[in-house]
Amino acid sequence: MSRFDISARTVLFAALIAALPALAQSAEVKREVVGNRTSENIPAIPAELLEQLNRYQNTRGAGLAGWTKDGCLLISTRFAETAQAHRVCQPLGMREQLTFYPEPVGGITPAPANAWRDGFVFAKDKGGDEFSQLYWFDGPTRSVHLLTDGKRSQNGGTTLNRDGKLMAYSSTARNGTDRDVWLRNTQSGETKLLVDAGGNWTPLDFSPDGSRLLVMKYVSAAESYPGVVDVATGRLELFPVDGGKASFGGFAFAPDGKAVYFISNEPLQGKPQEFKTLRYHDPVSGRFEVLSARIPWDVGGVTLADDGKHLAFVSNEDGISKLRVLSLPGHKEIRLPELPIGVIGGLSFSPDGKRLALTLNSATSASDVHVIDLAAATLTRWTQSEVGGLDASTFIAPTLVRYPTFDKVDGVQRTIPAFYYKPAKPSKTGKYPVVINIHGGPEGQSLPTFSSNAQYLANELGVAMLVPNVRGSTGYGKTWLSLDNAEKREDSVKDIGALLDWIAKQPELDASRVGVIGGSYGGYMVLSSLMHYSDRIRAGVDVVGISHFGTFLKNTESYRRDLRRAEYGDERDPAMNAVFERISPLNNAHKIKSPLFVAQGRNDPRVPWTEAEQIVKAVRGNGQPVWYLLYADEGHGFAKKANSDWFGAATILFWQQHLLND
After folding, report:
1. Is the residue at 218 inside a domain?
2. Which GO terms describe its molecular function (predicted)?
3. Is 68 within a domain?
């Protein structure tokens, strides 16, 4: 849905086109401007393709936001163009839509059950620019009020105390670079700066009496610093970090307000730890426990019931989520119903503490909200999202494979995990074409979640998909996470080369027809893979990808720059800058010999649109065909359904013309 009238769009795109590089406006480039969409060299999408894709593109999911004080659930789902806040008050009951905006709504935080007012806080940006402002949705009146400055600031991480009188949140309002912690009195509306220590700070949990606030400074996926703030005085006390540097996850006060539960990979008894474990510490008594010691995987989050009787956490075990609930204060694991194999998110205990709501997603089922009755150990489905009228029993579940890569560990070949979506029907040619889908981050992790794109490729086109977790991905330990840092960046690209080798050895896969797709850092991986392996990759799709690390770090929003330097390296260091100049796809565009499709959001604050512009120009300079898609009303990815659908159809057309052709 456009927020501009026709005349305004005309002015906007006249300016936009004028800003495009001269080469992109040459006679060889066929440009089309439709509303907020500018496309170059993308052929008309056949009506029959759009019709065939229609059902796959009309799948949807529902994600849990939390409970309301009257026992209903707040969820996020999409019925029109964007995801909005809805309320569901009984299992499989009516989904009542509460917000109606052309932009997606996120960060939905319900008022606690004992709050002085009923409603929820939500976040909303403009056109994907990620300068999200916070709003209050008032339950009784259904009115909406702006809570933050409404300017070019980024606000989020909302945390409310038990009576809802205090609201803590992160904001870049002070200087546009540092993410500080702010405190708002929700009754008077008074707002004050609480933590301005520099860097990226987030509020985590108020003490039961509201006098203290747990906070965390995030430096990188491998380095965080937790602390506690006196709400009245603003005095910040950092907790000691064993080993000096560690990664932390959730932090929450125990029901007594003295002890804490937290997730960390700090050394234990002087022994380094690969994975983040759930821990309990009472500084008064000195009692310390590692509650997930027997789980050799990362723990991803911790949630406590308001009545103080239970705690829930999820472990990430080779990409599969495992839920555990402990009774308090004894930390004894309770019996739970059997859950579907998949990915769990959004844990929230009911106001009375007797039920636990969660989001479940699997490779063959979109996200939906379920509720566990703790006493009865039963699971009840509360939402059932549509899958476009498709027969879900035909959906393909991936298998987990591991393939050898180029290096060894203690003399043994290192292996890379990957999820493999294999079509059920025999290939008409005897071998399946392959699309390699690379996640972003780079500190991300590909999980076996529902993908209508993977299902379409497998069931309709007979294309296999491989989704690897190359080195540098989260979920596989501290060492794995660091294997691609700074000057080791291209080692992760070599993992893609090793995957190409593995594909060539699989009798059912066609090594002569391999495509690669990825977004953000995954977009860089696409470009770099094409740079190194154009002779073995037929085509690539780069979505909001990095094309040169130096220009990326220069032009990304200032509040992200130091965060990214911690991962990629500091371009101000001559030695690191030399690495960037050597490995960046922009400087090696002449090596890209495969057809390329580049897609970008004009308002992207993370990877600026200039990264797309410059690689399009450079690869076209080689005489290589490049499709280019730019949305003026999107940012780091495509959040609006019409935009996402058109991009999806164009991508399938690209695969048909450049991957599946003889």
Report:
1. no
2. serine-type endopeptidase activity
3. no
Query: How many C-beta neighbours within 10 Å does residue 471 have?
Result: 23
DSSP-assigned letter for residue 141: T
Q: How many domains does the chain have?
A: 1
* Cα 516 from Cα 433, distance rounded (Å): 11
Q: What percent of the chain has pLDDT over 90?
A: 82
Cβ proximity of 439 and 522 under 8 Å? yes
Instruction: Give, to the nearest 10 degrees, the angle between helix 641-658 and helix 47-54.
Output: 120
Would you state the pLDDT for residue 304? 97
Least confident of 97-101, 248-252, 627-631: 248-252
Torsion of CA 632, 637, 640, 645, to 10 degrees: 100
What angle in degrees, to the nearest 10, is found between the helix axes of 489-504 and 521-533?
Answer: 60
Burial (CB count <10 Å: 0-12, 13-18, 19+), residue 291: buried
CB 368 within 8 A of CB 380: no
Asked if residue 472 is part of any domain, the answer here is yes
What residue numbers bound the domain in which 447 lies?
A: 6-57+390-658
Three-class secondary structure assignment of 366-420: EEEEEEEECCCCEEEECCCCCECCCCHHHCCCCEEEEEEEEEEECCEEEEEEEEE
**Token pair for 236:** 């910040």
Q: Is residue 255 part of a domain?
A: no
Span 650-658, average pLDDT: 97
DSSP-derived pairing of the beta strands 223-230 and 212-220: antiparallel
Which tokens belong to 364? 């063959």
Domain at 430, CATH number: 3.40.50.1820
Tell the residue number behind the tokens 């009911």, with chain if given: 350
10-68 pLDDT, tens digit each: 333 333 333 344 333 344 899 999 999 999 999 999 999 999 999 999 888 999 999 99
3 state SS for 41-55? CCCCCCHHHHHHHHC
Structure tokens at 170: 């992160």
CA–CA dist 297, 371 (Å, integer) = 25
